[in-house]
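Consider the tokenized backbone below.
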């Protein structure tokens, strides 16, 4: 008589007997299914099963946004809400926004710690590097060899911590924030400083380097001041974004290096700040003109959004 055997396992974590699992998966008749993230409707089904009372759609949407549809995180969140006797109402949707990040952070940190010390280091390096993540950079920042980085990344992908495939990135902003916040402020500052040094050695774009320097601790280094001054000049010249230049020059003043003099930096900071102030009346006038035009013509969505921290050309 034909028989069907269905087995489920949580990937990325140690199993009681890996050889049995490997043998089952190696069978020519075995079919492996990797579930996608849960949809809002699927999250609603779980909410109805876990929490009492009528389920409001806004509550379901809040749960789906807070977890990204990752099954493990959905169950962790609902478990915390059930323990607090929260009912799935519209009023409780705000409670999800408050409870979600902390619950996700705790569950994420716990799961990563069960993998290996290198997995923790890799996850933290990805959190620090953000959009500038590459395997070689993660290896250098985490202090592990590239093959070990890839092995740890594969395990984190299996656990729905990282998305499958390059580049290395977290499945949800809340997971990214959870790993980032699991480090102390001092650890983060040191890591951002090291990331800046790494990117500078690789001749990365100035704005990428400066973005990490903004989050590092001042240490009186003249070379840091020069990078920030160059980034400020490039930001102003290439995109006309003095607000970004102000942020870079303020950080340069905080560095406390002996050269260039504090007076020179304050002068440059003042000039950048004055350009920022001068742009405001023009921006207000443009906004007023746009409002006048909108009264006689259809509204057109804006298509240009710039970020001063990601607008500078590469160093030459």
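A designed sequence for it:
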């Amino acid at each position: 008589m034909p028989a069907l055997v269905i087995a489920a396992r949580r990937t990325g974590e140690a199993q009681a007997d890996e050889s049995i699992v490997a043998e089952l998966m190696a069978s020519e008749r075995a079919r492996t299914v990797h579930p996608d993230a849960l949809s809002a409707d699927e999250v609603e089904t779980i909410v109805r099963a876990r929490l009492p009372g009528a389920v409001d759609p806004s509550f379901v949407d809040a749960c789906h946004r807070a977890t990204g549809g990752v099954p493990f995180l959905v169950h962790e969140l609902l478990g915390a809400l059930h323990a607090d006797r929260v009912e799935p109402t519209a009023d409780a949707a705000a409670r999800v926004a408050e409870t979600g990040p902390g619950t996700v952070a705790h569950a994420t940190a716990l799961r990563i710690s069960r993998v290996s010390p290198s997995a923790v280091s890799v996850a933290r390096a990805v959190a620090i590097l953000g959009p500038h993540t590459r395997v070689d950079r993660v290896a250098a920042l985490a202090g592990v060899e590239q093959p070990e980085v890839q092995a740890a990344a594969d395990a984190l992908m299996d656990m729905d911590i990282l998305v499958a495939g390059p580049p290395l990135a977290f499945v949800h902003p809340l997971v990214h924030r959870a790993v980032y916040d699991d480090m102390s402020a001092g650890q983060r500052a040191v890591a951002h400083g090291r990331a800046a040094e790494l990117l500078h050695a690789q001749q990365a774009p100035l704005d990428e380097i400066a973005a990490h320097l903004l989050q590092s601790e001042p240490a009186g280094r003249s070379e840091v001041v020069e990078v920030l001054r160059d980034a400020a000049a490039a930001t102003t010249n290439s995109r006309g974004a003095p607000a970004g230049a102000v942020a870079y020059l303020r950080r340069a003043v905080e560095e406390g290096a002996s050269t260039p003099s504090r007076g020179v930096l304050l002068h440059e900071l003042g000039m950048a700040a004055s350009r920022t102030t001068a742009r405001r009346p023009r921006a207000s006038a443009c906004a007023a003109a746009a409002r006048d035009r909108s009264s006689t013509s259809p509204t057109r969505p804006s298509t240009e959004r710039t970020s001063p921290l990601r607008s500078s050309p590469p160093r030459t």
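Residues 281-316 have pLDDT under 50 and may be disordered.
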